[in-house]
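Hi R.,

Here's the chain you asked about this morning:
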Amino acid sequence: MGASDKYMDPNLELHKSKFESGMPYKEYMASSKEQEQSRWKAVYDKVILTDEQKKLLGSFTRKMYILCLCGAWCGDCIRQGPILQRIAEASDVIDLRFVDRDSNPDLRDKLRILGGTRVPVVVFLSEDFYECGRFGARTLSTYRKMAKEQIGPACSTGLVPPAEEELTAVAQEWIDMFERAQLALRLSPMLRQRYGD
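And the predicted structure, written out as tokens:
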């Protein structure tokens, strides 16, 4: 065992406990208000992954735990949460859990972005609950769109599902992040030694 294998991440227990207490998509939706559920469903119904995207996600071999800190009321979460679920559905090795930001102040405070308690924040975890990536708030295409428009609220209300081309761009950005995390796991010396690959 190498020196790096002995390292104990101080966040391992937090990651593990929050993931285990987190809810799968359907359970998270069932715990949300009816109005929130309908908004998430409107986006979920519009998200369609391409065959190429599904093939890529289906080729993943390393177990990935995905912890999504969010709020069912949040417009950014309404737009991105269903995309994350569609991605998780396309892979046998992705296990996605949703955790409410306001009910988990310890995790919320650990995952601040620019000092703020933004949502969604997604933490990519290995099968041992080591963090292998983190991404939060909005995707690049969303920030570009906001910068171009320079109008409206800082946080989308989620009342109207985004246009198909926007969903397609955001979905691809998320898939790229999932692929990056999967490749990091696939190339991890510790995991390669464990699985002999």
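The mean pLDDT is 91.

Let me know if you need anything else.
M.
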